[in-house]
Amino acid sequence: MPTTVSTPVNLPADEPVPFAVTEAAEQLLTAEPRTWLRRIWKGGQIVETCPAWCTDTHWNDQSGYLVDLCHGDGFQGPELSVFDAEDGMVQVPLFTGRINVDPYSSEPARNVPHVHLEPYPDQVMECLTPDEFAAVIAQLRAHCDRLDQVHARLVEARAEWQGQA
Question: What is the pTM of this model?
Answer without folding.
Answer: 0.73
